[in-house]
Amino acid sequence: MGRMELPVLDKCCFVLDLKTGCIVLGVVNSILTFVLAVILITFAVDLKDLPETKRDGVDEGGMFSILYISVIIFVTILFAKFVLDLLFVWAVYKEKSGIIKKYCIFWIVVLVLHIIGFLKSMSQMSAGHLISQILFLAENFYYIAIVRSFLKSINEDGVI
Fold first, then answer.
1. Are 152 and 8 in contact (CB under 8 A)?
2. What's the domain range around 90?
3. I need a surface site. Which of 52, 89, 143, 147 has the fewest CB within 10 A?
4. Number of folded domains in the chain?
5. Half-sphere exposure at residue 45, Cβ-oriented, CA atoms within 13 angstroms
6. Which residues are CB-contacts of 141 (< 8 A; sequence separation ≥ 6)?
7. CA-CA distance, 81 to 102, in Å (whole number)?
8. In this structure, is residue 2 part of a structural domain?
């Protein structure tokens, strides 16, 4: 049986060359990651400033504390991803295939974890949220295909 692989693309979005496309996608990802981190920080501040009287009615079994800690952890992960996105843009600009490969592997791992979480919570999602998650996954598979195509264009041997 043959091996199933992602397609190798010649252009990003049918317009840009692969290097420019990777840089644009990396910059857009870093901006979106930063904005999401800022939004979550404001959410965490709002949670922290919630009056004790409202917390007691909502906080059964310490759920408020778990939610607050998970938001803080997720913000930390997002800032790490922001830095990695900027490193990726620099690596594409300098054509550092080793760094790009590691970033792509990191992104695949994050995507697999996201798919697992998506499949676990899919039955509780509304139709709009389900469609947005499917579009997010499709965009990420396209992003990985673009990065892999760029890697193939600069380094023919041993692409992920």
1. yes
2. 14-154
3. 52
4. 1
5. 6
6. 6, 111
7. 13
8. no
Residue for token pair 């041993």? 158
Does a structural domain hold residue 3? Answer: no
Is 124 within a domain? Answer: yes
More confident residue, 73 or 59: 73
Helices (H), 95-126: 97-121
Instruction: Confirm whether 56 is domain-assigned.
Output: yes
For the chain, give the longest Cα–Cα distance: 63
The gap between the terminal CA atoms of the chain, to the nearest Å, is 19
Query: Is the Cα dihedral 112, 129, 136, 47 positive or negative?
Result: negative
**Cα–Cα distance for residue pair 160/154, rounded to 1 Å:** 13
Q: pTM of the predicted model, to two decimals? A: 0.78
The residues, ordered by sequence, that sit 6+ positions from 153 with a Cβ below 8 Å of its Cβ are 18
